[in-house]
Amino acid sequence: MKQTSLQKSLASLSLGGLRYFDSIGSTNDEALAWATEGARDFSLIIADEQTTGRGRAGRKWVTPQGTALAFSLILRPNLTPASSPESSNPSLFTGLGAVALVDALKKHGLKPQIKWPNDILLNRKKVAGILVESVWTGDALDTVVLGMGVNALAGSNPPDDGLLFPATNVENELGRPPQRVELLRDILSSLMGWRPKMSTGELTKTWEENLSFRGEQVEVWKGDEKPLAGRVMGLESDGSLRLLDNDKIVTVQFGEIHLRPAV
Ligand code: ATP
User: Fold this and answer.
1) Which of 40, 73, 210, 259 could form a disulfide with 16 if both were Cys (CB 3.0 to 4.6 A apart)?
2) Cα–Cα distance between 41 and 101 in angstroms, integer?
3) For the whole prediction, is pTM greater than 0.90?
4) Is 210 exposed, middle or buried (0-12, 13-18, 19+ CB in 10 A)?
5) What DSSP string runs through 178-234?
6) How far is the CA of 222 from the centre of ligand 1 (A)?
7) Is the shortest distance between the CB of 158 and ligand 1 below 6 Å?
8) Cα–Cα distance between 212 and 79 in angstroms, integer?
9) Which numbered atom of ligand 1 lies nearest the CA of 258?
10) CATH assignment of 3-209, among 3.40.50.2000, 3.20.20.80, 3.30.70.330, 3.30.930.10
């Protein structure tokens, strides 16, 4: 990936700023640091390799050199919970990222699904992960860093052993290598389109329509607690997951959750 071609192909998107790295620890860390220096809304950090890429709870997200898309977008909602409860709900930003990824992958002829809360699947295998981190000033959401790792080319997947969920990449599912910059532009442009609609309910509806395991029996783990089991019904307006357990609806709050199809 070259910075000049990146700048050229993202020119129409009016980004707040762009920082490209051949190699970096974590794009989310760089984004959080840039935000404290006053980065503008919709500033983008992108790297061709991450050496300490993160998933949730400090788990590792693998981004080998030259094979994946690893980027973080800095969003500055500048809203207080009182003025707009939904757009200051960081969970919805995970939905925003997920829906944008789904749109872009569909545009490339694929059939992506969202493994609630933060992963994208192709053929029931993980092709991308989303990591949203937020910074609050008092009760105002100051910064949202929306990080994404997309397994674009063959070679982007971590070794199978040690993976808790099977992985794939776009090239493997498409049968040919995608243009990474094109994929990036499609994700960002969808994200820009969806962002103003975050609190309209339309986003949650589309997020829900693209959930994986809909109507299927799943198990949901939270820490060491006994897993919840139920059939995936949909989402609440705040992005919580709705399961049907026997005849009872159970709502799973957004958080440190692991979802698996029941075996
Ligand atoms: P799970 O999929 O088990 O519910 P999770 O959604 O919590 O986990 P994240 O924290 O989002 O997972 O991502 C980190 C995990 O993803 C790692 O523990 C590793 O198993 C897996 N992983 C790391 N890099 C990749 C990659 N490039 N492609 C697919 N999976 C990966």
Assistant:
1) 40
2) 20
3) yes
4) buried
5) --HHHHHHHHHHHHHHHGGGTTSSHHHHHHHHTBTTBTSEEEEEETTSPPEEEEEEE
6) 15
7) yes
8) 31
9) 4
10) 3.30.930.10
Residue 69 C-alpha to ligand 1 middle, in angstroms? 15
CATH topology for the 217-261 domain: SH3 type barrels. (2.30.30)
Residue whose C-alpha is closest to residue 199's, from 100, 87, 97: 87
Ligand 1 pocket: which of 26, 54, 60, 130 to mutate (most atoms within 8 A of CB) = 60
* 122 CA distance to ligand 1 middle (Å): 14
Cα four-point dihedral sign 223, 201, 128, 36:
negative
Rounded distance from Cα 254 to ligand 1 centre (Å): 17
Give the CA diameter of the chain: 57
> Parallel, antiparallel, or unpaired: how do β-strands 43-47 and 17-21 relate?
parallel
pLDDT tens, per residue, the chain with 263 residues: 778 889 899 999 989 999 999 999 999 999 999 999 999 999 999 999 999 999 988 889 999 999 999 999 999 987 444 555 555 788 999 999 999 999 999 999 999 999 999 999 999 999 999 999 999 988 888 999 999 999 999 999 999 888 989 999 999 999 999 999 999 999 999 999 999 998 889 999 999 999 999 999 999 998 888 889 999 999 999 999 999 999 999 999 987 789 999 97
Domain ranges of the chain: 3-209, 217-261
| Burial of residue 156 (number of CB atoms within 10 Å: 0-12, 13-18, 19+) | buried
